[in-house]
Specification:
This is Catalase. GO terms for molecular function: catalase activity; heme binding; metal ion binding. Decomposes hydrogen peroxide into water and oxygen; serves to protect cells from the toxic effects of hydrogen peroxide. With 682 residues, this protein is an alpha+beta fold. Helix content is 26%, strand content 15%. It is globular, with a radius of gyration of 28 Å. It starts with 10 loop residues before the first helix and ends in a 10-residue tail after the last helix.
Length: 682
């Protein structure tokens, strides 16, 4: 990889370098450094005799192998992570004393882990699911973890119900089916009987749950947090990550197909983008609310099933994160990364959101069982870039060698050190919120509105997005065996939208609701992906051509594609080289055996084969599938015949190159629009 950053490493990279080992060219040793003379045969009593217990090398090697796997995360098991850096646009000291949010010249190292929530480590990337978006900032005041999702709300309001919702969406316990899917009875039974999930389900049934790429999805902190400034004044805050490439998604059919032919699609996409120097960028935004305005939105801001409409509380963009380096070792970095909402820095504090309060316990507790004890913070990827000093000692996998007698506070033998730091010295001081009340197991009445923001979301969708939501409900509930559960969901969503409930009730054989509906008419345009950024940058184009193509003209077209940010990849009859006229050749990356249309954003067909009927047939199928997924299609030269034969010529998003000079710009414009939803599928 050439990331252009050699010799300009940040503090975290330098720290991790100390732990890196390159075994190339080295002699084989045990973990104690003893050189090994034989690694093919165990020590035996005779060449056909039993293996001897004294074979320390055999026992060390097998013991390590037997313990190589650590328990996978209960949720967010399938993850992929990268390194990067964050730089602030403007000084935020008016709101927070967090140093990394004050100095615009500082580049703070970050480590970001993307994930699916539901499936196991072996599941596919493109399943319908929420996506984790966890960011670890290695700041000069210690690690700060912003642990969020690509959806701004959650299923439940109180963390005591977290085991219940996870048990419900995981595979059913009697047969462990289905994997990485909520299309089953127990999940929808939970939804019907825990109607606080109504809003989150709308997001899960929308296109947001099948993102085109980790690089093309938003991130949200979900909870309401606090900023606290030097004067002790607090503001409520919500965090947003805005992708510079826009927010885009698959259609359900191609997400399904990709799960089979390329289950690592999102991983490949992110890894290859960084290896090729196309560094993903996300802008950090904050919504800030004065404490005195806590109730002005008409919702309880401590309710994690609610969002703050961006039209009411604008998102202020304050910085940019650039992801520019892949990990060196998946297990050591991605798999052993430990995130925790309790990893904060001065100037960032919590609220009484009952889901947030529970996560503050659960995340720390989870790391203890996953990573073998209390010293997981010493694993290189989790270490802060600043030194740590305390009286914690021993435990599994302790790496720090603490010197001296004292391991307690208070003391006189070490001058009462390590000593607490004052607030002026950078010590963390919790916000002094006044708290009073009777001990009670209850939920505030302000948490009882479960449907208004689900309706807000529905009202904000484009006609295409609404159609996809109806189809998603129809698919998921169509897999539910219990007719009672199906009917309960129909009746539940009649409170969100009668049109929605009636539409999917017909598909699943349930009785359409006669009453219901909502008086919420408000919409939030920011919730629709129709209003996102559209750019051709890093879009993959399948280029179909065979020998004998017009070399100079096709070379001109592909160069124009690349100049605009498109990434063309050649598909031909055989891998190797494909030769055109005037000595122009291209490297062939794919055949129709190794590539499918769902792996590309667009198709450009140049010509077919005069000798291979199979190639022509495969090309037609490839184009048909791309057309059915509303993708842009372009053709020049002999390739135009494929469009005219199928009746695609002149359809929305179909660009023909009768004028080779204007064709590239027209095609790039079509690709930048992502999909062409008004196209009539034949």
């Amino acid at each position: 990889m050439n990331d252009g950053r050699n010799g300009n490493k940040n503090s975290k990279e330098k720290q991790l370098d100390a732990f890196k080992v390159d075994d190339k060219g080295k002699k084989l040793t045990t973990n104690q450094g003893l050189k090994v003379s034989e690694d093919e045969f165990s020590l035996k009593a005779g060449d056909r005799g039993p293996t001897l217990m004294e074979d320390f090398h055999f026992r060390e090697k097998l013991t390590h192998f037997d313990h190589e796997r650590i328990p996978e995360r209960v949720v967010h098991a399938r993850g992929f992570a990268v390194h990067g850096e964050f730089q602030l646009y403007e000084n935020m000291s008016k709101y927070t004393r967090a140093k990394f949010l004050q100095d615009t010249s500082v580049k703070t190292p970050v480590f970001v882990r993307f994930s699916t929530v539901n499936g196991s480590r072996g599941s596919a990337d493109t399943v319908r699911d929420a996506r984790g978006f966890a960011t670890k900032f290695y700041t000069e005041e210690g690690n700060y973890d912003l642990v969020g999702n690509n959806i701004p709300v959650f299923f439940i309001q109180d963390a005591i119900k977290f085991p219940d919702v996870v048990h419900a969406f995981k595979p059913e316990p009697d047969n462990d089916i289905p994997q990485a899917s909520t299309a089953h009875d127990t999940f929808w039974d939970f939804v019907a009987n825990n109607q606080e999930s109504a809003h989150m389900i709308m997001w899960i049934m929308s296109d947001r749950a099948i993102p085109r790429s980790f690089r093309m999805m938003e991130g949200f902190g979900v909870h309401t947090f606090r900023f606290v400034n030097e004067q002790g004044k607090a503001h409520f805050v919500k965090f947003h990550w805005k992708p510079m490439l826009g927010t885009h998604s698959f259609v359900w059919d191609e997400a399904h197909e990709l799960a089979g032919i390329d289950p690592d699609f999102h991983r490949n996409d992110l890894w290859n983008a960084i290896e090729n120097g196309h560094y993903p960028e996300f802008e950090l935004g904050v919504q800030i609310l004065n404490e005195e305005d806590e109730f002005k939105l008409g919702i309880d801001i401590l309710d994690a099933t609610k969002l703050w409409p961006e039209e009411d509380i604008p998102v202020q963009i304050i910085g940019k994160m650039t992801l520019n380096r892949n990990v060196d070792n998946f297990h050591a970095e991605t798999e052993q990364a430990a995130f925790h909402l309790g990893n904060v820095v001065p100037g960032i504090d919590f609220t009484n959101d009952p889901l947030l309060q529970g996560r503050l316990f659960s995340y720390l507790d989870t790391q203890l069982i996953r990573l073998g004890g209390p010293n997981f913070h010493e694993i290189p990827i989790n270490r802060p870039v600043v030194p740590f000093h305390n009286n914690q000692r021993e435990g599994y996998h302790r790496q720090t060698i603490n010197v001296g007698k004292v391991n307690y506070h208070r003391n006189s033998l070490a001058g009462n050190t390590p000593a607490p730091a004052s607030e002026e010295e950078g010590g963390y001081v919790s916000y002094q919120e006044k708290v009073e009340g009777r001990k009670i197991r209850a939920r505030s009445k302000s948490f009882t509105d479960h449907f208004s923001q689900a309706t807000l979301f529905w009202n904000s969708m484009s006609p295409t997005e609404k159609k996809h939501i109806i189809n998603a409900f129809s698919f998921e509930l169509g897999k539910v065996k219990s007719m009672s559960v199906r009917q309960q969901i129909v009746d539940m969503y009649a409170n969100v939208s009668l049109d929605l409930a009636r539409a999917f009730s017909k598909k699943i054989g349930a009785a359409p609701p006669k009453t219901g509906g909502s008086n919420v008419t408000k919409a939030s345009p920011a919730l629709s992906q129709e209003n996102t950024i559209f750019t051709p940058s890093t879009r993959k184009v399948a280029v179909i051509l065979t020998n004998g193509f017009n070399g100079p003209e096709v070379k001109y077209v592909l160069e124009r594609f690349q100049a605009s940010g498109l990434m063309p990849e050649i598909i031909s009859e055989n891998q190797g080289e494909v030769k055109g006229r005037n000595g122009v050749t291209f490297n062939v990356k794919h055949t129709f055996l190794t590539a499918k249309s769902v792996q590309f954003d667009a198709v450009y067909i140049v010509n077919g084969s005069n000798t291979s009927k199979k190639f022509n047939k495969d090309a037609v199928y490839f184009i048909d599938e791309a057309f059915s997924h509303y993708k842009p299609i372009g053709a020049t030269h002999e390739g135009i015949q494929f469009l005219t034969i199928n009746g695609y010529d002149g359809k929305q998003g179909v660009v023909t190159g009768y004028d080779i000079r204007s064709f590239p710009d027209e095609f790039v414009k079509a690709v930048s629009l992502h999909r062409h939803w008004d196209r009539k599928i034949i």
